[in-house]
Specification:
129 residues, alpha/beta, five-stranded parallel beta sheet, Rossmann fold, 5 strands
Amino acid sequence: MRFLLTPVGSAGDNFPFIGLGAELLRRGHDVTVITSENFAPIVRRLEMNCVEAITAEEYRSIQDNPDLWHPVKGYKTVMAYAMEQVRRLFKLVRELAEPGRTVVVSHMLDYASRCIQDKTGLPVVTVQL
């Protein structure tokens, strides 16, 4: 079985997905993590496939945005970032999913995979961290 994991966010979002992916790999599955360039080294070190959806520079720019930490502007900032990720994830998941062989394990902000699921029947499991 092929698993596509789509963590959206920071280390606190990515590391649980990476741990899950490592266990799926240990059980003999084909695992691809679609994530930021920042997390690619650990994904590859654990011998999983990695597709970089955003660059380290893009990741750093969101982390350095003072609005991210603002009590009122923070949510809007996170959602703007998530919507940009949705566009990229939609394309990547469509390209990487093999009908009848792929399950997507998606972050709660990965709306793209659920849209693909609605359109094609692709199995998607949403993880709430």
